[in-house]
Amino acid sequence: METPQQLTDKARELQARLSPQIEEARRNLSDLNTRITTYIRQNPGTCLLAAAAAGFLIGKIASRRW
Amino acid sequence: MPETTHGTQGNGHDHRGLGERVGQINQSAQELWSEAQGAVNQLRETLDLRGRVDRHPYGMVLAALGVGYLLGGGLFSRLTGGLLGLGLRVAALPVVKEELFHLAKSALAGMGEGAGEAQGEPPHTAPAEPPKTV
Fold it and tell me: A47 CB contacts (<8 Å, ≥6 apart)?
């Protein structure tokens, strides 16, 4: 049986081990978001056309009778 | 001979007329082109696609996806029905949660009253009216 102190220590250890990974994942996601928005802003026509084409395809597939 | 002269004059007149017509057509085409360009520019300014994409990049991409989906004929499909049902359920979730919360609250209050009555407390009822004397 573990004492509350041991449980607290374990939780702290787990937090110390996971917190850098979570921070890195957050930074990566933020970086990805920045890159995507920058790309969309730099090529609006391409992105909108590609999105419309993708939506058209999805609509075609969804409307198909199985 | 006069016929030949007339014929030559007529040909020259025709050539000049044809040239004028070509010139007119050319001018009309240029006017049409410039008007079309103006209309396109006006439409571009009205829609302001670049500005909108700058302000809401993800929203505009999703809107384009939705327009493509509608154009692809996906409006009356099972996927749309499922998505609409999911959206309705998500939208109705707070209302249902609140109703359940009120229901649980009133049930707990009722249970508290019942326990009080069982312990001998007088029930919370309206006082009896005194007997009427005629």
Answer: A39, A40, B53, B57, B61, B64
Contact assessment for residue B72 and residue B80, using Cβ atoms and an 8 Å cutoff: no
The alpha carbons of chain A give a radius of gyration, in whole angstroms, of 23
Residues of A in contact with B58 (CB under 8 A): 37, 40
Q: Do A44 and B70 touch (CB under 8 A)?
A: no
Q: Taking 70 as the threshold, does the pLDDT of residue B118 lie above it?
A: no
pLDDT for B5 equals 46
CB < 8 Å to B75, chain A: 59
B10's tokens: 């007529």
The secondary structure of B83-109 as a DSSP string is HHHHHHHHHHHHHHHHHHHHHHHHHHH
Q: Is the full-model pTM beyond 0.80?
A: no
Query: Using beta carbons and an 8 Å cutoff, which residues of A are at the interface with B?
Result: 36-37, 40-41, 44-45, 47-49, 51-60, 62-63
What was the pLDDT predicted at A2?
Answer: 75
What ipTM does this complex have?
Answer: 0.78
Q: What is the pLDDT of residues A36-63, one digit of tens each?
A: 999 999 999 999 999 999 999 999 999 8
Query: What are the C-alpha distances in Å from A34 to residues A27, A41, B50, B110?
Result: 11, 11, 18, 55
Per domain, the residue ranges of chain A are: 4-63
